[in-house]
Amino acid sequence: MRTLPDTDIYAVLSDEYSRGRGNVETARLLLEAGVKIIQYREKNFAVQRRLEECTAVKRLCAAHGACFIINDDVDLARAVQADGLHLGQSDTRPEEARRLIGDKMLLGYSVTTQYEIDRAKNIPGIDYLGVGPVFATGTKPDAASPGGLALLDYALANSDRPIVAIGGIKLEQVTALTRRGVRYLAMVSELVGAEDIRQKVVDIRAVIAGC
Ligand SMILES: Cc1ncc(COP(=O)(O)OP(=O)(O)O)c(N)n1
Ligand SMILES: Cc1nc(C(=O)O)sc1CCOP(=O)(O)O
Ligand SMILES: [Mg+2]
Prior knowledge:
The structure is a single chain. The chain has helices at 22-32, 47-63, 74-79, 94-101, 114-120, 148-158, 174-180, 189-192, 197-209; strands at 9-12, 37-40, 67-71, 84-87, 106-111, 128-131, 163-166, 184-187. It is an alpha/beta fold. It has one domain (9-209): TIM Barrel (Alpha-Beta Barrel), CATH 3.20.20.70. Strand 7, helix 7 and strand 8 (184-187) form a beta-alpha-beta unit. The protein is globular and about 40 Å long. Residues 71-72, 87-88, 91 line the site of magnesium ion (MG).
């Protein structure tokens, strides 16, 4: 079934933010901490490096019963038989991607405005929406203007697909997002850049549990 796991944290890997640990070791730490969704998002690595890293991360995810999602790259997602593919407004069109990946792989789609949220309603084959940036982020230099909590409220009220909040999410924002009804929290720097990834996951989940 094409559904995101019943979980909370959606970790997005980034070698640059990983304190030198690299993507595979970071994925291992996240999985050992109980994270169940991991996205691979490296835009500038050579094809061979991306393939090797994704093969290793996919194996780790499978061993931990976690969902492995690849950003942007339809061919890479197919090559490593990822569990999911994430696409944005400027990537392969979702209808075309769905044709290429078949009907088993999850497909996530980014929306950054109310207009894009509305338009996504009519696009078949999308399994969840990545909504953001919610807050300002330094991790994605070409990100749209932050939509704030109002963008999330709009997505929650107007889309029947699962909503993944992304962009500038730190431990401090988890309460506000969770109380708003956001179930999935996507984070890059806060998670992969944490000195102690296990402790960060524990801290995030303690906040969620307290909401
Ligand atoms: C969960 C999630 N949501 C949004 C994005 C952003 O996708 P996109 O707009 O295509 O930007 P890039 O990540 O490709 O720079 C995402 N990756 N994941
Ligand atoms: C990959 C990505 N996509 C975004 C979007 O708004 O679609 S913001 C973003 C980067 C999020 O990084 P951090 O958690 O370090 O702020
Ligand atoms: Mg993209």
